[in-house]
Amino acid sequence: xxxxxxxxxxxxxxxxxxxxxxxxxxxxxxxxxxxxxxxxxxxxxxxxxxxxxxxxxxxxxxxxxxxxxxxxxxxxxxxxxxxxxxxxxxxxxxxxxxxxxxxxxxxxxxxxxxxxxxxxxxxxxxxxxxxxxxxxxxxxxxxxxxxxxxxxxxxxxxxxxxxxxxxxxxxxxxxxxxxxxxxxxxxxxxxxxxxxxxxxxxxxxxxxxxxxxxxxxxxxxxxxxxxxxxxxxxxxxxxxxxxxxxxxxxxxxxxxxxxxxxxxxxxxxxxxxxxxxxxxxxxxxxxxxxxxxxxxxxxxxxxxxxxxxxxxxxxxxxxxxxxxxxxxxxxxxxxxxxxxxxxxxxxxxxxxxxxxxxxxxxxxxxxxxxxxxxxxxxxxxxxxxxxxxxxxxxxxxxxxxxxxxxxxxxxxxxxxxxxxxxxxxxxxxxxxxxxxxxxxxxxxxxxxxxxxxxxxxxxxxxxxxxxxxxxxxxxxxxxxxxxxxxxxxxxxxxxxxxxxxxxxxxxxxxxxxxxxxxxxxxxxxxxxxxxxxxxxxxxxxxxxxxxxxxxxxxxxxxxxxxxxxxxxxxxxxxxxxxxxxxxxxxxxxxxxxxxxxxxxxxxxxxxxxxxxxxxxxxxxxxxxxxxxxxxxxxxxxxxxxxxxxxxxxxxxxxxxxxxxxxxxxxxxxxxxxxxxxxxx
Length: 680
Ligand SMILES: *[C@@H]1O[C@H](CO)[C@@H](O)[C@H](O)[C@H]1NC(C)=O
Ligand SMILES: *[C@@H]1O[C@H](CO)[C@@H](O)[C@H](O)[C@H]1NC(C)=O
Ligand SMILES: *[C@@H]1O[C@H](CO)[C@@H](O)[C@H](O)[C@H]1NC(C)=O
Ligand SMILES: *[C@@H]1O[C@H](CO)[C@@H](O)[C@H](O)[C@H]1NC(C)=O
Ligand SMILES: *[C@@H]1O[C@H](CO)[C@@H](O)[C@H](O)[C@H]1NC(C)=O
Ligand SMILES: *[C@@H]1O[C@H](CO)[C@@H](O)[C@H](O)[C@H]1NC(C)=O
Ligand SMILES: *[C@@H]1O[C@H](CO)[C@@H](O)[C@H](O)[C@H]1NC(C)=O
Ligand SMILES: *[C@@H]1O[C@H](CO)[C@@H](O)[C@H](O)[C@H]1NC(C)=O
Ligand SMILES: *[C@@H]1O[C@H](CO)[C@@H](O)[C@H](O)[C@H]1NC(C)=O
Ligand SMILES: *[C@@H]1O[C@H](CO)[C@@H](O)[C@H](O)[C@H]1NC(C)=O
Ligand SMILES: *[C@@H]1O[C@H](CO)[C@@H](O)[C@H](O)[C@H]1NC(C)=O
Ligand SMILES: *[C@@H]1O[C@H](CO)[C@@H](O)[C@H](O)[C@H]1NC(C)=O
Prior knowledge:
- The chain is an alpha+beta fold.
- The protein is 28% helix and 26% strand.
- The protein contains 13 helices and 29 strands.
- Strand 2 (55-58) and strand 3 form a beta hairpin.
- Helix 5 packs antiparallel against helix 6 (329-347).
- The longest helix is centred in the middle third of the chain and has 20 residues, at 375-394.
- It is globular and about 85 Å long.
- 51% of the residues are buried.
- One 2-acetamido-2-deoxy-beta-D-glucopyranose binds next to strand 7.
- Pfam families: Bac_rhamnosid6H, Bac_rhamnosid_C.
- Residues 1-18 form the signal peptide.
- This is Six-hairpin glycosidase.
- Keywords: Glycosidase, Hydrolase, Signal.
- Residues 239-460 form the Alpha-L-rhamnosidase six-hairpin glycosidase domain.
């Protein structure tokens, strides 16, 4: 269903309610989540596709001056009130007002509180004239209703400033009604119908998990709302993909498909909102716009930026992730030929004698330096080859591709370890010749993608070295100095978890995502694109660049790493075979007392949880997964370090290996199971 169609339906509904009983608008019946429970209270998504402000702020000092609905008058030229929706929203705004005199009602939008005012935060482009405001002009006293036109859909904001521009000293406006028709997640009538959930003993982690999930919803948008660059103002009417819904990088901007961002956004989508239609359409648009030399664009249309070896490979990794979660073999059949050509295109950049990839498509996530045999790119190639081999197997390829890709991966891993490892420092360098820079991206990916084994001395050294970049509000990227990237930090937390360093991973989640969650100027409901180590929102505004600070996106799916990591590594439940035909359960307690999570695939519901006693002398683990699946369970060692007595589904037995550092691993079939471990 296309956005225009949905909007018509909602508008009609709204017209009936407008100005009369709108505050009583009833939108949805009971929640429709796959796993009902008290954790649903943490869902940020509204009940209703029509949303209203919750309070009014003074423009002068940004303090709350009244609740809304209530009375709201602006009087005289330049007077303004700020309507706060209480969380990130996005879509088409409607304002009804009674005006005296003549003039214009201005509407200006902002995600962060810093940029409330008569001028919107920036979404169009750093080098354009600025977003400014949109106006509802009136030439005489009367009652007016104004709705944003489709091109001016505002994809993401929390604050709407309404102001009066007039030449008449006696002119006033009484605001009677303000609403937004949510534009995102266009195919869902109930925005709270999540297929996944998460709950643990730390309320901040719960909110962070759900802010990642809500961010992904705001990034799943109607396919005709892509950003078109304009000399000034903004225009969100570009064609993004076929289908009805597509995942883009950010709510406010860029509003384009960015496959690298999907490396974090898609695993997080799978465990939370479960909207894989948006993922399929995003990937298909990349295949539809593949170039003649078989390279993929860096970003989808209308942007269609080119020239990125890393983002080329992220489309390929995205294909694997999508197949893992859906087993959509029709999609793979349709695109397999293009995928294999894309593999030859990128592998053609591997040169002897080093056996490393030489980057010539130098665009990337935002790191300052890219090119030559950059380590991050080689880590991504390793993962591309490993996942490519798996795809070839799933595709039942008989030409030996799986073997070819696997042996290339093995050789590449050897080359990376030989040329890029810095023995004296105990982490990877930025490339084979670099001596000083030990980047956050390549080192995090080395562990996450398995270029080093999780329990190896190298992995443990990298995990420890990464903490040297930490500041009180997050990890500074050495490859993007002065900046904190929650995108690359998402890889870092995954790396610490894979290395078995759960407490370290939780520490970084709390420092970085916790800082933003509690920031008084933030959205309080989504995850931010990036920020500076000095605590300002001016991501990338350093090294002589002077970007418009307000351009930063405050709802960016590439920062949703904690959402998948908490499910996959704290609860420890993850799919390893297509649609969960095989799965793993490997809880890590960190400093938590309990945790549970669940998600859905075409096979059914998967969920698991655990409790650990305060003194660490006992714990219990349970899981409920579809019959016919096969799992690998790894029980953690007792936190007390003692030997345990294990009771599985009511039957007890002793096993000394629970004492080992790696815990106890065994295979088990699907169904409902529970285990209790008590120290002897
Ligand atoms: C903020 O401004 C409003 C008027 O716009 C005023 O009533 C209020 O006292 C101000 N608050 C502070 C803390 O200055
Ligand atoms: C009205 O206020 C706006 C915004 O502050 C200002 O730019 C403009 O010059 C003012 N117009 C008049 C006639 O004072
Ligand atoms: C104010 O007056 C100027 C000059 O006559 C005119 O150009 C402008 O459009 C008027 N503004 C409004 C908001 O009526
Ligand atoms: C929030 O924004 C206001 C207005 O721009 C600024 O004065 C204040 O320092 C900011 N607060 C924080 C904690 O950054
Ligand atoms: C509406 O009012 C704004 C602000 O005064 C002005 O910039 C704009 O040109 C006006 N638009 C029309 C169509 O008169
Ligand atoms: C706006 O409508 C209300 C009733 O709906 C009416 O009482 C009021 O006079 C109208 N205002 C103007 C300026 O026409
Ligand atoms: C938005 O862009 C489209 C496509 O270029 C163009 O047709 C339309 O006129 C623009 N609308 C606005 C309001 O700028
Ligand atoms: C829609 O699909 C057609 C046919 O594959 C393709 O040519 C076109 O570029 C696609 N549109 C977008 C916006 O991706
Ligand atoms: C390696 O990449 C650099 C750009 O980073 C380029 O100048 C050089 O020609 C490339 N070498 C080969 C062998 O392709
Ligand atoms: C290797 O990495 C360093 C640090 O990013 C960079 O300054 C240098 O230019 C790179 N070397 C080459 C040959 O690209
Ligand atoms: C995936 O789909 C294919 C083709 O429909 C089917 O043969 C295969 O069994 C499926 N695999 C899983 C794990 O569901
Ligand atoms: C903790 O244990 C209790 C008692 O066995 C159980 O009811 C509860 O569901 C467990 N919680 C989690 C998160 O697993």
